[in-house]
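Narrative summary of target 7.
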Amino acid sequence: MNTPRLQVSNADLHCHSTVSDGLLAPAEVVRRAYANGVDLLALTDHDEVGGLDEARAVAVELGLRFVDGVEISVSWGDDTTLHIVALDIDPGHPALIDGLAQVRSGRDERAAQMGAELDKVGIHGAHQGALNFVGNPALVSRSHFARYIVKMGHAKDVKEVFDHWLAKGKPGYVAHSWATLKQALGWIHGAGGLAVLAHPGRYRLSNKETRRLLVEFRDLGGQGIEVLSGSHSDEDVSEFARYAREFGFLASRASDFHGPGESRIDLGKLPQLPQDLTPVWQRFR
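Modeled conformation, tokenized:
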């Protein structure tokens, strides 16, 4: 018997709240998504599920279909940081909770090192400044540093900060060992979820490296990739739609929204997925 297809017109399956590096509280994220016409939403904070209860409660109140999610930081290859979005998870699964705690544990030390490196190039007080932008110090990230640097007038926006100071190879970048790809996918599958490679067009990989990543991701049980992402150009969308077809990946639609005025794409404002791709939400429980 065929399973009925989930009817969705405007899914957004990757966004952030103040629980990690977003600008809006979980409840505000849900209300904004609803106002923008989203009818299926996943909150996917970095390495933390602490905002899901608040977000889910507001979604239920509004009648907005909501999916539990999280975005896991992964180290792959020679100092490449990947993000894997976990969707339709059991957020209370013990192995997932323990794994996320392990990933978060190194952020403080990295932040202190970033502050020291930025101090050397004339950006002083960045570590403490970044902490002033984060609700949970254990989740301090490059985005919080970027907001401080913009506030101090060293750059006009967050993108400029990353381009000049915080991207790989720049003065304030500090490498960090996150979860392995195998660990992250193990936690996601243990929690009953689907593993989706986030914004693949953002990684500075050669075509050969991208194919190697996709093969490894598939072979470890990865099920989907973000074809549509707030980070993707039209060329990226075409490229990763081709990869989805070739590798048999489910396709996700994801703004990666962090906040008004900071994100390139607002919640629910992406185009539709190519019609021949299978949306990841068709495999939700």
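The beta strands are 11-12, 40-43, 65-76, 80-87, 194-197, 224-229, 250-254.
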